[in-house]
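Reagents: none. Just compute today. ATP-binding protein.
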Amino acid sequence: MTDLGDFSDFAGDDSDDSSDAGRDEQAETAAGNGGSARSESVSEPESATAASSADADRVDAGRDGRDDPDDGGSTDAAGATGATDDADDLQFDQYDADPVGDERGVGAIAVSQGLRVSEDPDRTALRAFVTTGNRERVRLGKYLVVPYPDDELLFCRIVGLEYAQEFQADDATEIHARRAMRRPADEFEERDFKFMAELEPIAVLFSDRGDLKRRMVDRVPKPQATVGEATDATQIKTGLKIPEAGVFLGHLSVGGEKVRTAARPPTIDYRLKDDYADGDPLVFRHTLVAGGTGSGKTHASKNILRQYLAVERSYEMDDGREVQAAVVQFDPQDEYAQMHDDNPDMDAETARRYEREGVAHGGHDDTVALVPKMAGSSYPGANHRAEQLKFTIPFSMARDLPWLVAGSSLNDNQYPALIELLNRFFRDYGDAGTYKQFLKFLDDPALKEELHESGRVHEATFDAVKRRVRGVPSGVFDQDARPITELDHQLVRPGGLTVVPTYHLSSSRAKELFVLAVSALLIDDKLSNDPSSDRIKETPVVLGMDEAHNFLTDADSVQARKVIQKFTEAAKQGRKERLGLFLITQDPQDIADPVFKQVNTKVVLNLGDEDAIKSVNIPPNLEDKVPYMEKGQMVVYSPDNSEPVELTGLSTCVTRHGD
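Predicted 3D structure written out:
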């Protein structure tokens, strides 16, 4: 009979506790079998038949579990002799689960639960057995390669991990549980279990005249094919469809850890296409940066915007000219003008590393803070050294943008009345007419009576419009500064950064007026066939808007619909007119859907709100990561650029950031 040994072997050094436990287990077993007492060895583990089956499995795998009770070879007392006799007739090789000799990779393709690739992801069955020595370093999301016999490669990633029983045994018993509870936490026999990785096929990699290319997965790997970790930068970039050149966003990562390769540098840089080789540059197909407070979205946005201002980056216009982009950034927290200054926290080694990776860094000298002038407020501008230039909104802009003077929401009857009043005013006063003159114009009782009697504007509607026009914050229009309409060359400069700070303004309505007035000026000239400013029309523009949810939200008012209509048109025609929207928000769910649908590239940092996470419409495997990401971690969903990926941003901002 096989010697099962003393159970004290499993219970540490306290043999008395083991004996007591054995008596307890005997009593429990007897009670559970109608009072028929059985010895502990009878109760655990399996019958002779089960042992024989387990032994046969080990023969096929070249393993030996004959003398090791922990390997599942111990038997029920009643059938122990038969099982042992069967085992003695067979020759076993030593079971060795650790990597030995010339083993490569992390494991091999398994067929125990099927092997299938399909156009329907739910019908794909692709699993790998992971060898013992590799199990600790295998993580969800890791990228792997599987060779085909003809030197093509299957590029895939891990989407599931599980332990399964190696031998036929029932470990859901009282004795097994008590043994496990007595063992030290680190005393775990890996060889007793199979460690399986579920794989998601991404692409097939193949060589075409010396170039590595990708295609959709159209073939199944061979059983027992070696599964290896992807460590070649070219293979990884090709497999994920990441461009070799373009605007730097961050480094490819899995679970917050950067993907490492055998190359120098060992990291994988992620870039957005910015040339016309494969379609329009993605900057003109619009970008959304979404992240909660403290997620690092301003830090990340500065790093990205600085890349658009790199000297070597330019875009082809319709007339064949190559022109650098101008960046116009609305700044509600007075942070982006700091991009003029170098980051004092950047050391020489970090700067050299950025240079080696082709990451633009350092303060941008051509930075201007275009400061809104409002009565009763002043802009300190003490946290940066950028040039400051004040401007005002001339009331004449209301001729083409009547919603600027709506004050608060107007209905469908009141908005046409406002347009009628503005047309009458500018006909009498011309473009020199001011907001104060318009208020005086509305105080004329004869005008009210005339419009009422002619049926053009009902007197009640006239009064409602007048109240709303007076609701515009005082001190916004016609201040002692240069009109924004005369500052097109300061507003838009090829290769220049213009920051419009609004932190110092006294009300949210005043901030909205300034942001929308300047945005509308840019959009109208970019989209017009007869622009007021050739400078704006002929320069690629990146229009950045922080806290975009405050300005582009859905609303029932007429003026809100007019604003959304203007930005939707800009988004649709952006690629043709070289106008890119760069929207930054912590509440992406509040951005109007017609604008949101035009965004191609989504950079998502930590978001704690479930509605916000759902609204960005990223793949489920990335969506689940968002609430757990640390500062600077992000997921990028840019279908026209690459597969969905996780990135780690630069830890040191490329320009000054913070106090």
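The chain has 19 helices and 23 strands.
Action item: order primers for follow-up constructs.
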